[in-house]
Please model this.
Amino acid sequence: MTYCLGILTHSGLVMAADSRSNAGVDYISTQQKLFDLSLPGDRVIVICTSGNLSVTQSTMALVRRDIKIQAEVNIHNIPTMHEVVRYLGAKLRYVLAQDQEWLRRDGIDAGCNFLVGGQVRGDDEPSLHLVYPQGNAIQASKETPFLQIGEAKYGKPILDRVLTMQTPIEDAAKCALLSIDSTMKSNISVGPPINLILYRGGTLKIEHHLSLKRNSTYLAKLRQEWEQELKVAFDRVSPIEWDVWEQD
Amino acid sequence: MTYCLGILTHSGLVMAADSRSNAGVDYISTQQKLFDLSLPGDRVIVICTSGNLSVTQSTMALVRRDIKIQAEVNIHNIPTMHEVVRYLGAKLRYVLAQDQEWLRRDGIDAGCNFLVGGQVRGDDEPSLHLVYPQGNAIQASKETPFLQIGEAKYGKPILDRVLTMQTPIEDAAKCALLSIDSTMKSNISVGPPINLILYRGGTLKIEHHLSLKRNSTYLAKLRQEWEQELKVAFDRVSPIEWDVWEQD
Model:
C-alpha cells in the first residue's frame, strides 16, 4: 500500500508520502512516490502517486520525457495548475488505453491516484488536486484543507482534529508526519522513507524537502514524543462517570 | 456502516458499538448492534454485529428463539465460550444457506461479522471472539487485546497507542468511547447511540451498561475534552528542525 497526503492552508502547501511498495507480504520494496517537478522561480509542481506501480511509473515517465525533449506542451510550460492537472490526467489515460484491458483480463487492478500540488507563476495562490483513476480530478477547497490517497483512514483522525486553513504551514508539516506515522503504526504495508515538501505560497520555490529514513533519529523521536503526549492527553480526559452517565 | 469493538484486558472485558444503519446516504436509520444475552450469576455473553443487517438480524432471531423455547442447545446452557462461538457460527451458516445464493444473484453482499465476548461459569477468565462471514472464528490473545468489526480503521490508531493487557478496565472503556468518537468524526456512516458494556472478569455479571444518545451531554463533553487535549499534545510535540533533519 501507499499513503500520500497534501495539505493546503492559507500560508502554503505541504505534500508527503511514504515509500513502501508491496506485491504481497513477501515482496516488499522501496519506491519513491513523491516527485518534485518544479522550475524554481517559475513554478512549483509536486506529484504524489498511489496504486498500480506500473501505471504510475509509466505515466510519470511520459511526463518527464515531455520535459526532457521540451515537448510543445510539457509541465514546465503549461500556463496554469488547472491545465497541469488535465495534462497529467491525459497522460494517465494514454497509459490506461494501452495497458488496462490486459490487466483486467487477469483480474489486476490498474487503478491509481495522483496528488498534484503547486503554483505556476500567475496563479494567485497554490492549489492542490487529486487525479482519479479515470483521469478526472478534484481540487482541495477551504472546507477541505487536505486530500489523501492510498491507505488514508488510519491517518485521517489527526488531520480532522488538528487542521484548518489557518494552521501555520510548519504545523501542517508536523501534522502530516504524525498522520503518516499513525498509518505506519497501524498498517505494516506503509513504511519509510517518508518524503515531505513544504512550500510557502507565492515564493515559487520549495522551502524544505525532508527525507526521513527508516532509522532516522528524528522519526523515532517524533513517534516517541507523540505516543507519550497522546497518553498524557488520554489520561487527562475525564473518566466515565458511570452513576451519572447511565442515567442519561 | 458500523463500528464495533471488544477489548480484553487482565481485569475484564469492554464491548461497544455504534447504532447507525444505512442503505445508501438517503436511508439512514438506527439499529441496535450490541446484544446482552447474559444470565447474571451464571454467564455473561455479549454479541456485537456488523454487515448485512438481514443476515445478522435473522441470526440473532434464531439465537433468541432457542433461548425462549429453551431448546436443548441454547446460549444459556452451552457449557463454554468456545462452544457458544461455534453455536453462533452454526446459526449464521443456517441463515446463509437459505439467503446467500439469492443475494449473490443480485450482487448483494451477505457478509457479516460478530464479536462475541463473555465468560461462562467454569471458564477461567473472560474471552473475546470474532466470528467471520463464513462462520469460523478467531479469539483475542495477549498479543492482541482488542478486536474490531465494521469500519475499523479510523478508530485503530488510539487503540494501538493506548491499550495493553495491563490497561485498567475503566481506562479501556474510555479508550473504546474515544475510538468510536474518532470514527464518528471521520466517517458519517457511523453514529450514535453508542452502547458500551463493562464486565469485570470473574463476576459473571455485567457491571455497567452505557447508552449514549446523539444529544448526550457526556458524549459532547468527552469529544470536546479529547479534541482539546489532542491539540495540546500536538503542540507539545517538538517542531520539525529543518536545518538538522534535512541533513539526516
